[in-house]
Specification:
The protein has helices at about 1-25, 30, 235-255, 270-295, 305-320; strands at about 35-45, 50-65, 65-70, 75, 75-80, 80-85, 95-100, 105-110, 115-130, 130-135, 140-145, 155-160, 170-175, 185, 185-190, 195-205, 210-215, 225. The model is unreliable at about 1-5 and about 15-30 (pLDDT under 50). The protein contains 5 helices and 18 strands. Strand 7 and strand 8 (about 105-110) form a beta hairpin. The protein is elongated and about 75 Å long. Helix 3 (about 235-255) runs parallel beside helix 5 (about 305-320) and helix 4 (about 270-295) packs antiparallel against helix 5. Keywords: Membrane, Transmembrane, Transmembrane helix.
């Protein structure tokens, strides 16, 4: 009896190992690693944050470049990222391709080039505008020097903060910085009059380093922060209009079924319903275009114009349904 059970148990165990271990080993991102990740944050007197990232990437089974995701929108707060450029001291392809995806700027370096193997070094530079927040008596910067969007572990990371004045209030947290209580203080390596260094070892995938700096008031030029409209920007009037339209459509949908007709009469499409559908679609398109053309596809906010358009679409659909359009 024991022998009969042992065979199936061993087979089941081997199958479980194959399902869990083999796919992980086949994924090149599991074996890939970042030996060193060095970041220099330069706080310029004109209020611009200049970022220089030097990333050493060890491709396990080969790959086509690296991808860095930089958050340009945090809630309704919007940062302007410009002048993105990259290079490689090891000769790897370093052509830059940027795409706004979600609330992040996706920076692809060498992703469209030939495959590379082994250890490669990349340098990414960019400027961040409107990164400082004016406070009472000081100006504050909070920045993810190493974001938490990476899926490759980092063996050793270093962040250097350089300022135009003496840096007195600078802190750094490492780990899952986007989750409260899941981060720890970074190791403070060297302190200088105008520069402070932080280091951290053993960052797992999804862990990063976030720096917070307080500068004396007017130490740097700080333009007003930029805010995008919230994704839901409708007022009570627009919301009420949409709710009433949906309620009316629901009442129409509950009409009693009509008895069978011996000879169905084809019905013409009511012009009022068609007109409401067209007007509703036009309102939504205008509202979408107004936001998207100015700030990209993820800047769209659902305002009163879109709510009114949805209400007109609901009313038009209700009229068409009430007149039995499409019934045999």
């Amino acid at each position: 009896m024991r022998g009969r059970v042992r065979g199936p148990a061993i087979a089941a165990g081997m199958l479980l190992v194959a399902l869990l271990v083999v796919p992980a080993a086949a994924d090149p991102r599991v074996r890939a690693r970042i030996p060193t990740y060095d970041v220099v944050l330069t706080l310029r007197a004109d209020g611009v944050l200049h970022v220089r990232e030097t990333i050493t990437y060890d491709f396990a089974d080969g790959g086509r470049g690296i991808v860095r995701r930089v958050r340009y929108r945090d809630g309704d707060r919007v940062y302007e990222i410009r002048d993105v450029r990259a290079s490689s001291s090891t000769g790897a392809p370093s052509r830059v391709r940027t795409t706004r995806l979600g609330h992040h700027l996706r920076i692809g370096v060498g992703t469209g080039g030939p495959e590379v193997r082994g250890r490669q070094a990349y340098v990414i530079e960019y400027d961040v505008l409107r990164a400082f927040t004016p406070r009472a008596g000081f100006d504050e910067l909070g920045w993810d020097a190493i974001g938490t969007e990476g899926d490759v572990p980092i063996e050793h990371a270093a962040v250097r903060v350089e300022g135009p004045v003496r840096l007195r209030h600078v802190t750094c947290r490492a780990g899952a910085t986007d989750a409260p209580g899941a981060s720890v203080g970074c190791a403070r390596d060297r302190d200088g009059r105008y520069a402070i260094d932080f280091t951290q070892s053993g960052l797992a995938a999804g862990e990063g380093m976030r720096v917070r700096v307080r500068l004396p008031d007017r130490a740097v030029a700080v333009p007003p922060p930029a805010y995008a409209p919230p994704h839901w920007a409708g007022t009570w009037a627009g919301t009420a209009m949409l709710v009433l339209a949906i309620a009316a459509l629901a009442l129409v949908g509950r009409r009693p079924p009509r008895g069978p007709r011996p000879r169905p009469v084809p019905r013409r499409r009511p012009s009022a319903g068609t007109g409401l559908l067209a007007a509703g679609g036009a309102l939504i398109l205008v509202d979408v275009a107004d936001d998207v053309l100015a700030g990209g596809p993820w800047a769209f906010s659902l305002g009163d114009a879109s709510l009114a358009g949805l209400a007109l679409l609901s009313a038009g659909a209700g009229i068409l349904f009430a007149h039995g359009v499409g019934e045999p």
